[in-house]
């Protein structure tokens, strides 16, 4: 009997799409998760892909730029996604929050995304004007809209990456559950 330990099992990879308006902090959060510098971040034009390593999985995150010119093409990039990260600026103007709400609602109802787990990050919680997670939940009408879907709503800021990592771990847990369900069918 051999008792040598082989290489560690490969980590499961999940393809995740990350959306949100320009300035919501998508790039900063993802760069921090990858331990990259965040001092000269510019708005994402088009999209970028980052492989974000976690202890038990690797998330291949396709981040889509949030500018109006790009937003209308978001749905072209949804195919093949297994999960969704939606980042919103909880300290933004009411107008921008309204736009973010509309975008989140259409993502939650999109045929290619509606069955997927969602991680919704109420970002910039470190700013004085930030609305609480409860306020966001109520304003975005998440309870009635996302009933029956798997979703997580968490506050986030680049100052507290432990909390952000924990939120992503919860998303990975939902992705794993979905995987197991698919395996049972």
From TrEMBL:
Keywords: GTP-binding, Magnesium, Metal-binding, Nucleotide-binding. GO terms for molecular function: GTP binding; GTPase activity; metal ion binding. InterPro entries: ARL15, P-loop_NTPase, Small_GTPase_ARF/SAR. SUPFAM superfamilies: P-loop containing nucleoside triphosphate hydrolases (SSF52540). Coiled coil: none annotated. Mg(2+) binds at residues 27, 44. GTP binds at residues 20-27, 66, 123-126. It holds the Pfam family Arf. Belongs to the small GTPase superfamily. Arf family. This is ADP-ribosylation factor-like protein 15. The gene is arl15b.
């Amino acid at each position: 009997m051999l008792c040598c330990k082989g290489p560690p099992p490969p980590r499961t990879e999940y393809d995740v799409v990350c959306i949100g308006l320009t300035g919501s902090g998508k790039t900063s959060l993802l760069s921090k998760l990858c331990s990259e510098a965040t001092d000269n971040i510019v708005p994402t034009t088009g999209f970028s892909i980052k492989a974000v390593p976690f202890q038990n999985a690797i998330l291949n995150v396709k981040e889509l730029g949030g500018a109006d010119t790009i937003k209308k093409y978001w749905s072209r990039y949804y195919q093949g996604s297994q999960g969704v990260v939606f980042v919103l600026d909880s300290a933004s103007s009411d107008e921008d929050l309204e736009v973010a709400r509309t975008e989140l609602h259409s993502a939650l109802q999109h045929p290619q995304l509606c069955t997927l787990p969602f991680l919704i990050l109420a970002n910039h919680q470190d700013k004085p004007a930030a609305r609480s997670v409860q306020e966001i939940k109520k304003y975005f009408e998440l309870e009635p809209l996302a009933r029956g879907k798997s979703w997580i709503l968490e506050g986030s800021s680049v100052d507290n990456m432990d909390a952000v990592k924990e939120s992503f771990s919860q998303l990975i847990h939902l992705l794993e559950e979905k995987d197991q369900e698919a395996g049972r069918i």
